[in-house]
Structure formats: C-alpha cells, structure tokens
Amino acid sequence: MAAETARIRWPRIVQDMIDDVESTIRDQDHSLVVAEDGTKIARRLTDLKRDIIDDKPLTTLPSQASPDFQWVNDRIEESNSWSWLDSPWLFTECYMYSRVRSIFLESSSWKTYDVFERQKKSTFINSQVAVQELALRYIDTVSELADSRMTPEQQSALFLEMAQVALWGNATDLSMLTHLSIEDLQSLQGRETIQKQQRNIVDNDLPQVWAYLTSAEFTSGERMIDIVLDNSGFELFTDMVFAAYLLEFNIAKRIRFHVKDFPWFVSDAMTSDVQWLLEALKSTQYFANRACMDALSSRLEGLFEDGKIEIASHWFWTAGSSYHEMHERAPELVADLKSRDLVIFKGDLHYRKLTNDGLWPHLTSFKRALGPLVRQGGPRILSLRTNKADVCVGLESEEQLKELEAECPNGGWVRNGKYAVASFTKGD
C-alpha cells in the first residue's frame, strides 16, 4: 500500500495540482505579477513531482513558515538519508503537503489559494443525489421522531444509523478514489449500502458509545462533543447532519468542528469549505428540490449562528508526527481535548496518527494502540474510519480475522475502503 501510494498516487496528485494552477492562470483575469507567480508555482510543483518519481532525498522546509516545519527539518537532518521512496510513509506523505504549502507561501498573491478547491466542489456537486436523499431522510426523521416519545431501543437504533451515516461518508475520500466514477460514489452513499455495511464494521464499539452517551457520566456533564473533521464535500455534509442530530435530539449541547489550516490530503476540510457548503446547500443551481434542502440548510445555518456548532483549528492537525507525540508537541491541545466529553476523529489519516501508523497485531486493543495519548487519562475518543491503510486494531478473535481473510485475502479488508472501524475508549 505504501509503495503504491508513493509511486503512483503522489505523482498523480501533484500533477493534478499543476493542472489546477495552470487552469487558474489561463481561465481568470490576473495581473502580470499574479500570473508570473502562478507560473513559478507550477514549475516548482513540476520539480516536486520529478523529485518523487526519481526518489530524490527529502529537503528541508523554511522553518519560519509553520510551527511544524522546524520539527520536520530536524527529522530529515537526523535521518541523513531519507528519500521519497525510502522513508516513513506517514511522515513523508504529510511532508509532501507541507512542501506544497511552502511553495504557495512564497507568493503573497497565492499563499491563501486552495489548489484542491475545484476538485472538492465538483465532487460535492456531483453527489447531489445522495445529498438530497440524506437531507430528505433527516428532515423526515426529525419531523416524525423529534417530538415523540421514543423508546430506549428506538433511540439506540437511531443513533446507530446516524453514526453509520457519519462513518461511511468517509468512503468519498478524494485522495483514495482515483479509479471510481461518479456512479460508484453514489452507490457508496446510498441508504441500502449503509444498511449492508454494518456487518463490515470490523471493530464496532458503537453500542458502547451509546451506553456512554446515555450514562450519568456523560449526561451530568457539559455534553460537549468535538469532531476532528476529515474530508470536505459529502463527508462534511454527513458530519453536519450527524452534528445536527446530536444537538436536535438533545444528546449534545455544543459541537466543535476541528478543521485544517491549509489544503491537506486533497479533500480535507478547511473553514472555507464549511462556509461554502452551507451556501451551496441553499443554491437552486445545485439542488432544485428545495423542500427538504431549505428545511435542512436553515437548521444547519441556525446551529452555526447560535454558536451550537463552532469551528476551531490547530497547527498540530497538519503536523508530520503521530498523535503519540501530542503530549510532547502540543500539550495545550491534549488538555483542551480532555476537557471535552467526547472527541470523534474522522477518517483514515487520523486513525493512522492515533495508532502511530504501527503494524500492530489486529487483535491489539484500540486503547493500547493509542499509546501515550491515553496512558494517563487521555481524551474520550471515538474513531470513525473506513479502512484504507495497513493498520487496523480492535478485532475480537482469530476466528474473525480468518473470516475476513477468507472474504478479502492478503489483507485486502484493511485497505480497500469497504470495511471500517468505529473504535472507542474513555481513556481511563
């Protein structure tokens, strides 16, 4: 998986960046300085692509550009030999996006440019069938159930369904779906697929999460839930719907979304993506069926305006290190997360960072794989992740592992995005 990513996916992603910059220069009316800077950026990106293909040594970054870059430089200098194809996968993939960031920062006119914006927007727009389906389902659910007396069993069933919507929204990760068509994306997002996929959650702690959310330990507290976002687009939309459910059904009092500071791993959500999506949901150009869309978009906008959903960011979310190092590198972030009643991490990269991207035996407990992050009473963590890399922990038995290998030989179930985990620990 790592070799395929480095040799095939990385050069392809950088080429997409080059094409985007050149398209922006060509299609928009820019000053001469902006156009010249854009041409220089495209040239630098071409050099980056060539470095990856030729397996050149990793080079240092301008340390003043980011709180993380000096740490990155120290790791490169300590290694004395890391190259693009001979270095730790997690570190080097993060390094690639940091290096792209440093290239754009060299130009004052391009430093806030999102080189993935077109791709993120077009993919969301092409998901309009799934967006409208989920909007209709949610509005119908709220209308039917919000004011009724639900039994504990009904409440649990609704939570499990809504959590799965948030979980499988990750199947639209742009950096992983290089071979899928729009029709494939829509089939991944349909309701029938979500129902079928529950058996594919290989570590399913959602019942334990519900037990915690309905316990006195949670309900007697502030009921503050953080969601560390992964992708923009359809997944961000599912996260918004999940957050609305948690608030409107009085499970949480306040939700905080954590976003990235700069373009990251193609499709990761930034503040601008949240703002654009809220506007897109109101657009008759994108969504002609307004009945459910108007109802949902006004609800979501109201939750943001009332401060019930907040947006936050931290430089550590775009750092090159795993979350095993969070105590050392960002102790204030650890303290902040520990003050919340639940922290939900979305997506494959967060899971890899939570588990130190380690090749743990699959029967290792999730808590053990989190290492020092929870060793002395860390945050209460739920990881919602579709499996797209080699690390996967929390399996119950050798029998379960054998069944998975029979279904998807050679470890395919940990990489193909058709299986998932919903792993939970209270960190105590």
Automatic annotation (TrEMBL):
It is an enzyme of class 3 (hydrolase). GO terms for cellular component: nucleus. It catalyses: beta-D-fructose 6-phosphate = dihydroxyacetone + D-glyceraldehyde 3-phosphate; beta-D-fructose 1-phosphate + H2O = D-fructose + phosphate. Its EC number is 3.1.3.-. One of its GO terms (biological process) is DNA damage response. InterPro entries: ARMT-1-like_metal-bd_sf, ARMT1, ARMT1-like_metal-bd. GO terms for molecular function: fructose 6-phosphate aldolase activity; fructose-1-phosphatase activity; metal ion binding. Residues 5-400 form the Damage-control phosphatase ARMT1-like metal-binding domain. Keywords: Hydrolase, Manganese, Metal-binding. Pfam families: ARMT1-like_dom (PF01937). Its cofactor is Mn(2+); Ni(2+). The keyword Hydrolase applies. Metal-dependent phosphatase that shows phosphatase activity against several substrates, including fructose-1-phosphate and fructose-6-phosphate. Its preference for fructose-1-phosphate, a strong glycating agent that causes DNA damage rather than a canonical yeast metabolite, suggests a damage-control function in hexose phosphate metabolism. Belongs to the damage-control phosphatase family. Sugar phosphate phosphatase III subfamily. Subfamily III proteins have a conserved RTxK motif about 40-50 residues from the C-terminus; the threonine may be replaced by serine or cysteine. This is Sugar phosphate phosphatase. It comes from Cyphellophora attinorum. The lineage of its organism: Eukaryota, Fungi, Dikarya, Ascomycota, Pezizomycotina.
